[in-house]
Write a structure and sequence with these properties.
alpha+beta; Aminopeptidase; 9 helices
């Protein structure tokens, strides 16, 4: 698998929460050669299943979410589109951004930005409130209202490209980089005999509460879950506490949202395999799908692996491919060992 090409393919698809169809179809196509069955469920999750062929085998569920932050059109004024956000968007990065409107066929637009020449000194120091921003699609009122119905979704228009030798920049790397990591995990396990049945859940709605993971786990009835999501990469302007340098490998979640033996086994596996990892201490809700996976049905033993990512929830998110490969190698070794010697 070419990690960059797979990540680029997934990243550039438009799939805001609630409109993940394109990404789900692509995920199923990529999983199909690596599992026994693929399907898309009622909430739009892409599901891959691999059976180990052993009666009564426990089931492991791996989750990474397909959806990205996005926007929804709420009205048209003088040809300009009013909009609200889907998921956590920083309004400071919006003026001047290119957008893709998910019409049929798609339309392009830009978030209107007042030039600095026309701003007062006070205005230049302030973030423009979201309700004052508009998307310009180059149309008058009548044409815009006909072309873009209220409720139309939009995403950042952004290319996925290499940044330096081993880093990748693009939109929606949260969490399509981790979907790519799960695909790489499946590839590493292709010819490995397992003692567990495996469900890979490429879930929907994570950015708006985790409904896809909640329903997908309920249907799968797993004995163990591992959520795979991004965490904050270290940047010059960011805190050192709670951030992780790109190139330092994945982070193993530790805290009440994660089952202690699962975190320990992930850490021990990394040590045994010589894979660099960090520990990410989370004293409460991890802010990931691990939260809803843990309480599926009567409760599920749950672990969390995180991929360092810079500039989260912007159109220029950045990950390092060596971290992605390390995460996949760790997961593959962890899975290959499950069920052996009472490990599950």
């Amino acid at each position: 698998m070419d990690l960059f090409e797979t990540l680029k393919r997934l990243s550039e698809l438009p799939a805001p929460s609630g409109s993940e169809e394109a990404a789900a179809r692509a995920a199923c196509a990529l999983m199909a050669p690596l599992v026994d069955r693929v399907s898309i469920d009622r909430l739009g999750n892409a599901v891959g299943e691999r059976d180990c062929g052993k009666p009564g085998a426990p089931r492991l569920l791996l989750d990474a979410h397909l959806d990205e932050i996005g926007f929804v059109v709420t009205g048209v004024e003088e040809g300009y589109l009013r909009f609200q956000t889907i998921g956590g968007v920083d309004a400071r990065v919006l003026p001047g951004r290119e957008m893709t409107l998910l019409t049929d066929p798609p339309l392009f637009g830009v978030v209107a930005a007042l030039p600095p020449h026309l701003q007062t000194a006070e205005e230049m120091e302030k973030t423009i409130p979201l309700d004052q921003l508009r998307i310009d699609i180059g149309m008058d009122q009548e044409r815009a209202a006909a072309a873009v119905p209220v409720g139309t979704r939009a995403v950042y228009r952004a290319e996925c490209f290499r940044l330096g030798e081993d880093q990748v920049c693009g939109k929606a790397l949260d969490d399509r980089a981790c979907v790519t990591a799960l695909l790489r995990t499946l590839e590493l396990l292709k010819d490995v005999e397992l003692d567990v049945d495996l469900t890979v859940l490429c879930s929907t709605f994570e950015e708006t509460g985790g409904a896809g993971a909640a329903t997908g786990a309920f249907a799968a009835r797993p004995d163990l879950c591992v959520a795979v999501d991004v965490t904050h990469g270290r940047t010059p302007d960011g805190p050192k506490s709670g951030t992780f340098p790109l190139g330092s490998g994945p982070a193993v979640g530790v805290g009440p949202n994660m089952t202690r033996w699962v975190s320990r086994k992930l850490e021990e596996t990394a040590r045994r395999e010589g894979i660099p990892v960090s520990l990410e201490v989370m004293p409460g809700d991890s802010g990931t799908n691990a939260w809803v996976l843990q309480i599926s049905r009567e409760g599920v033993a749950t672990g969390l692996l995180s991929l360092p990512l810079k500039y989260m929830h912007t159109p220029v998110e950045v990950v390092q491919l060596s971290d992605l490969e390390g995460l996949a190698r760790l997961l593959a070794a962890f899975i290959a060992d499950l069920g052996k010697g009472g490990a599950l």
